[in-house]
Specification:
Blueprint (H helix, E strand, L loop, with lengths): L1 H17 L2 H5 L9 H16 E2 L4 E2 L11 H18 L2 H17 L9 H18 L2 H15 L19 E3 H18 L2 H18 L10 E5 L2 E4 L6 H18 L2 H17 L19 H13 L6 H21 L1 E2 L4 E2 L13 H19 L5
Antiparallel strand pairs: 1-2, 3-4, 4-5, 6-7
Helix pairs in contact: 1-13, 3-4, 3-14, 4-5, 4-6, 4-14, 6-7, 6-8, 8-9, 8-10, 9-10, 10-11, 10-12, 12-13, 12-14, 13-14
Length: 379
């Protein structure tokens, strides 16, 4: 009875908050979506559409571009791990191990890259792979990459990890948020105090340098040439909001200090009020290419906040309705069901050609919806 009441309450809130749900969905507004089936078809289609069986990595798009791109490989691996954890289907384990072989070969056997954020993402994904496989090769590789990442820290601009190795004139949210998450995850895995120190140090620098203390907005980067320093305050991407939220939540899990939870909530509230399509209450279109993956990264850490046990019921209801609304719009309006692909605009069918990075955002959202459904949080 309590579950029925919870679902009815959520539906009522959805109608009040989202306003024009019926006009968005039309006759499909009452359609029941089986979220586990949606998630299964999404991850399986990702494998079918992008997996390169010869070189053991994911191609750039679902047509003829087989170029290896380093950072989306991490998110594809992340979703393989998520699918295995959700379904316990061993076929995903096989792809996880094949992924390691293929990506290792493409990176000269070292998993090292010129961009610190790219390495951070792959280290994060491999650490998750270690947690489900218990294969030490993943943990050894993560520690090797993490040591390389630490070399990107300097006292310029007060600290922070620079964006890339060859050019040290920019320190970005994208190279610091994931680094703090990685340091926290390593601390939780191996309990090395130095990793926790790194997590806090990176987080504190990003918060003091790239986060608006009033709105919670995360700016993109601080750049410097000679004596000039400037912060790119007009660049606000869902990607950067998501990684800062993730870093805050990890430190909250470790320390129990409410300030971290409050930071995450403030940044989420900024995102869902300011980085959405006007009048639709869905995350904005940030283009294809790298921008296509931005929303998925936000959704990944937004979902973790929804699952935080100390989040207030009022906030959880609000956030659940936002995520469920985005998932419904994407599945009913923004999915090409012939090949189960997703575009950069979640309210519009993507057509035939779709890039891996753009598609991944949709895969992440479908798996998040299934996870929340399995926890009796959404229908």
């Amino acid at each position: 009875m309590d579950k029925i009441k919870f679902i009815r309450t959520n539906t009522f809130i959805t109608i009040l908050v989202l306003g024009s749900v019926l006009s968005v969905y039309g006759q499909n507004s009452s359609k029941i979506i089986e979220w586990n089936k949606a998630a299964d078809s999404s991850i399986n289609a990702m494998i079918q559409n992008y997996w390169n069986s010869k070189y053991l990595y994911f191609n750039t798009d679902n047509q003829e571009d087989t170029l290896f791109q380093y950072w989306p490989q991490a998110h594809a691996l992340d979703e393989l791990v998520a699918a295995y954890k959700r379904t316990h289907n061993k076929k995903y384990l096989r792809y996880i191990h094949k992924w390691y072989q293929g990506v290792k070969q493409q990176t000269g056997g070292m998993f090292i890259n010129n961009y610190y954020d790219d390495m951070e993402w792959n280290a994060l994904a491999m650490l998750r792979a270690y947690q489900v496989t218990h294969d030490q090769k993943y943990l050894r590789t993560v520690n090797h990459v993490w040591k390389n990442i630490q070399g990107g820290w300097s006292i310029v601009a007060g600290g922070g990890i620079q964006w890339q190795k060859k050019s040290s004139n920019s320190k970005n949210a994208c190279s610091n948020g994931p680094a703090s998450i990685l340091a926290s995850n390593l601390y939780l895995t191996e309990h090395k105090k130095n990793d926790l120190k790194w997590a806090k140090k990176i987080y504190n620098w990003e918060k003091s340098t790239l986060v608006d203390s009033v709105s919670g907005a995360v700016w993109d980067n601080i750049s410097f040439k000679g004596c000039g320093v400037s912060i790119k305050k007009n660049w606000k991407f869902t990607y950067n909001q998501g990684t800062f939220i993730g870093a805050a939540l990890k430190l909250y899990d470790i320390t129990g200090q409410k300030k971290y939870l409050n930071d995450a909530i403030k940044t989420v509230d900024f995102t869902i009020h300011s980085l959405t399509q006007k009048g639709k209450n869905i995350l904005k279109d940030e283009g294809n290419g790298d921008g296509g993956l931005f929303k998925g990264i936000f959704i990944r850490y937004f979902t973790k906040l929804i699952l935080c046990k100390n989040l207030s019921k009022k906030k959880r209801d609000q956030y659940v309705n936002f995520l469920a609304h985005n998932a419904r719009v994407l599945w009913l309006k923004g999915t090409n069901h012939r090949n189960v692909t997703f575009g950069s605009n979640w309210s519009r069918n993507p057509g035939k050609k779709v890039g891996l990075k753009t598609d991944l955002s949709g895969v992440i959202l479908m798996q998040s919806a299934a996870l929340l459904h399995n926890r009796d949080i959404i229908q």
